[in-house]
Amino acid sequence: IDVFRPEILGFSFDSDLRMSYLSIAVFGILALVVANLRRSTTGKELVAMRSSETATTTLGLSVRGAKLVAFGLSAVIAGIGGGMVAITQLRADPAYFNALVGLVWLAVVVIWGVRSMLGALLAGAFFALFPVLIAQHFSIAVQNLVPAFFGLAGIALAREPRGILAANAGALRRFCARRRPTGPRDDLDVVEEGAA
Q1: pLDDT at residue 195 is higher than 60
Q2: Strand ranges, E, within the chain
């Protein structure tokens, strides 16, 4: 089935660059929805259910309802993602939605950090860009080693089940703290300090 790229308020997403911007916007909106859900009462119920279904039931919360919400929301997000893939490739064909490719996607997301939106973003970028970079800059012998990278990532995942981002969160925080300026950031800060 041929699929046409959308036109929203007279703005056409006919080029790959514009589709990239649309994809980033859709990801940002979905990330905000998920972030707000995590902070909501429903999100707290889902966290409680993940920790202990028995305790969640003891508190009087509906485990079945929480599971339905989680399943429904994940189905909506997966449907939007599948629609974006079809729009980007201009075809909705079952061959584009191969189960093995889906498992690779899942593996990449789990390796980066399945509970982190940054992990999802990095996994998507890694999945899209890594094969292209390998193909452009390395020989065929190195390209054949790509499955070994998944093996090494699996070993790292066994060491830290929450993913690469969680394993390196402390180092990332220390790096960001060293980069943070210690003095006034701009003239406005200096004026405010002088006024106080």
Answers
A1: no
A2: 7-8, 11-12
